[in-house]
Amino acid sequence: MIGKLSGLIDWKGDGHVILDVRGVGYEVMVSDRTLAQLPPVGQAAALYTEMIVREDLLQLIGFPTLIDREWHRLLTTVQGVGAKAALAILGTLGPEGTARAIALGDTKALTAAPGIGAKIAQRVVLELKSKAPMLMAKGGAMGAEADFDAEVIEAEAAAAPKVAPKRRAAAAPVVAPSAAASADALSALLNLGYAQGDAAAAVAQAAGENDGLETSGLIRAALKLLQPQR
């Protein structure tokens, strides 16, 4: 399994790039959003990758961050959403917009992606509304972009030095379910780009107004409070 490619951009086309990795050119399918983020031909780039293997196809799909790749994997678990459709959603909304649309049940936002109709959008919301919060909560830790610096890419290719194993940290104390849900909801909102103060206030208000909410419900309630009032 190829999880990441680092090299020089040899060619950029409609929805594809060729990445030259030490003389081997890998053709990688990317979204329009990712294509726009990549540097010009001849410069160094790196992409996290997912390999699609079928009887009639062997295809690499490239992503600028690990969270993009994880969202793509989650989207393709929905019946009727293939690799291209998932890439279209991410290319239109990005991981943050996709997360927000699912949390709020905003099917109209999902149908803005090419090839995504109302029925598929509804299915995405219904099937992922309970699964998305956990991915949203850990988005910050996985959202670092693949490095485009040539010196860093060369360093990655070199053998990594051996490091003495670290001592295992003491186990964290058990957190009450309500506190854990609030912490996860706050983390998810911060990963979506909301300010610390606004996110914390929304989570606290949502928790106070809705007893017993789990993480997914708490995120949805907080997002509604954060939406601009018309």
TrEMBL record:
Hey, what's the signal peptide range on this chain?
Answer: none
Q: Where is this region: Domain III?
A: 179-230
User: SUPFAM superfamilies in the record, alphabetically?
Assistant: DNA helicase RuvA subunit, C-terminal domain, Nucleic acid-binding proteins, RuvA domain 2-like
Gene this chain is encoded by: ruvA
Question: Where is the protein found, in the record's own terms?
Answer: Cytoplasm
MF-aspect GO terms? ATP binding; four-way junction DNA binding; four-way junction helicase activity
The family note in this entry says:
Belongs to the RuvA family.
Its UniProt domain note says:
Has three domains with a flexible linker between the domains II and III and assumes an 'L' shape. Domain III is highly mobile and contacts RuvB.
Key words of the record:
Cytoplasm, DNA damage, DNA recombination, DNA repair, DNA-binding
Annotated protein name in UniProt: Holliday junction branch migration complex subunit RuvA
Q: Where is this region: Domain I?
A: 1-64
